[in-house]
Amino acid sequence: xxxxxxxxxxxxxxxxxxxxxxxxxxxxxxxxxxxxxxxxxxxxxxxxxxxxxxxxxxxxxxxxxxxxxxxxxxxxxxxxxxxxxxxxxxxxxxxxxxxxxxxxxxxxxxxxxxxxxxxxxxxxxxxxxxxxxxxxxxxxxxxxxxxxxxxxxxxxxxxxxxxxxxxxxxxxxxxxxxxxxxxxxxxxxxxxxxxxxxxxxxxxxxxxxxxxxxxxxxxxxxxxxxxxxxxxxxxxxxxxxxxxxxxxxxxxxxx
Length: 255
Hints:
Blueprint: E1 6-10, H1 17-30, E2 38-42, H2 45-54, E3 60-64, H3 81-86, E4 91-94, H4 97-103, H5 107-119, E5 123-128, H6 132-136, H7 140-152, H8 157-160, E6 164-167, H9 181-198, H10 203-206, E7 208-212, H11 217-224, E8 231-234, H12 241-253
Parallel strand pairs: 1-2, 1-8, 2-3, 3-4, 4-5, 5-6, 6-7, 7-8
Helix pairs in contact: 1-2, 1-12, 5-7, 7-9, 11-12
């Protein structure tokens, strides 16, 4: 089975409702008609509904950047899975390193969120990745193993059909420094091997695994030409409609 290339934009805490709407309209007019690439926009909560209303057809998927695992309750400032779904989302980013580092998320809480997302028919984009110190200490595989065990504990083969993994080395996120293609491929191959060993043989090759961490038009081709890298979870470059469009075009050429 040939996996589809995917380009997902993570806007983080950027873009007002008006800016988000303008981007959606502009981008929709720019993307190639023949593109076979999966495209996902992960916008701030405040913009989700308006973007869903702006987009026409089903070519562009909509995702949230986080959610809580509880159905509802006294969790001031949090967003429930059903709320994400009702805003028009099909995807949700879970376990991003910024959530882990700045807001205290753990492997355990990420696992609860993955389970809740799947229960609500949302497709989680599960982020994993090591810090620079962990890489220097030779702990890359240990860290990835722990993060994947936490996120995917109890997830079965059928559920994995709706899970995307995003390998994002923490030292490359927002720094302008990206992993070399060799470093990225090595990590992606570890992820596929882990899925094969811990979930099911074929899942390792069926699961979409994205690279995140300063992917931009200048380095995208060197990363995306590798068979184990299925696309990118794009931060800074996703905020510029021309750069994001170019990334989709590069991925299309390599599909």
